[in-house]
C-alpha cells in the first residue's frame, strides 16, 4: 500500500519538530559565522585598466577585418600579461616572498567583448600589496610590449588605488551565513521527516486502519481514575 502524506500532516510534522529545525539552522549559521569571521583570511582586490589604441585611424568607420585583428591583438595581450616574460620582472621589482606561480594565480586578466579595454585584477591578503602588484604589472607590460611586439599602443587608463577603508572581496560572511541558514533548514527538515518515517509506533485509529487494512468499528473511551470502581464499591455490589 502506497503511503501518502497530506498537507495538514506535513504542517503537523514541521510543527512537531520546529524546535529541532530551528536549532539546526542556528547551529549551521553559528559555525559558518565563526569560520568566516575568525578562521578564514580576508582577501582584497585591486583593479586597473589599460587601453589598447590603434596605430592608425582608417578612413572607413567600420571594417570587420580591423575589428577581428584588434580582438586577436587584445587576446594576445591577455596572454602576455600573465606570461613569465612580464611576471618575472614584476616578481623581481617587488621582491616578493612568494613564488612566480603563486603570483600568476593572484592575477586575473579579462576584457569586455568588442572592447579595447583590458581589465587586470589582483587579489591578495594585504590590500596595499594587491595595489602594488596591479600597478607594477601594467607598468612593466607597457614597457616590455614595445620590445616584444615593436608597438607602442598601450596606455594606462586607470591605475589601481588604495581605498581608505578597503573591503575584502572574500569571504563574504553575510552571504555565507545566509547560505548556511538555508542548508541548515533543509537538513533540519530532512531529519524531521526521517525521524517520522522511522517512527513505527501506533498513535491513533488511522494508524490501525493502515496497519491492519480493516475498518474501525468502535472505540473504547478512556476511563478516568475517578470513574474506576473501587474495592469497597465492588464489595457492596456483591452483598446486594
UniProtKB/TrEMBL annotation:
Q: Which organism is it from?
A: Sporosarcina aquimarina
Q: Which family does it belong to?
A: Belongs to the CpsC/CapA family.
Q: Please tell me where this protein is predominantly located.
A: membrane
User: Residue limits of the Polysaccharide chain length determinant N-terminal domain?
Assistant: 3-94
What is the name of this protein?
Answer: Wzz/FepE/Etk N-terminal domain-containing protein
The record describes its membrane topology as: Multi-pass membrane protein
* Keyword Metal-binding in annotation: no
Q: Where is the Tyrosine-protein kinase G-rich domain?
A: 142-194
Tell me which Pfam families the record gives: GNVR, Wzz
Presence of the UniProt keyword Hydrolase in the record = no
> Transmembrane ranges?
17-40, 175-195
The UniProt keywords, alphabetically, are: Cell membrane, Membrane, Transmembrane, Transmembrane helix
Q: Where in the cell is it found?
A: Cell membrane
